[in-house]
Design a protein that fits this description.
Length: about 180
Amino acid sequence: MSAPGPLWLRITVLLSRRRLDDRIAGGCSYDSSARLAVRARQLTHPWARQRLARDLRRAVEYADRVGTRRFVSPIRVEPTAVRSGREAILGLAELLDRPAPVSPRGIVLTRKLLTDALNSPLFDRYCERSVAEAVLDVAGALGADRVGEGSRAAGSCGVASRFLAGVERADDEAPPVRGGGSVG
């Protein structure tokens, strides 16, 4: 793969990637500046997508392994929430593994789902959104809601159908939301 821009530009992107990600997540066109364009290419690169898919699968594996045991940790995945959204999470991982193009905004939202301990239903048991709802939002941002527009040949239509069925099933099984909490 050739370098996605001059060294000074890549260093600038590295130093400001969180700010750039926030702009992309907010809907800023990634074609509006060279820094945003470089960051968008980084976010959607196959290795970055594969790493996110692996991290989603690891969250499910962790929830399965921990079960209902409690232990002290400053930040940890909420096993019950992850198990209730299991099919949706695994469907999202499968979408990320597909070669079909995805939007940089969807990648940023996937990263936030995996890392934002204050607002992600993966971490916050009192989050107003279920894991399945959050994953559905992320999948829409990735472009999964446009399946069928030229993607049937790639076989992604079946993936999206299974993914959406997993989201509906997880919503039916999700426990009711208790108390206040943050909005994801």
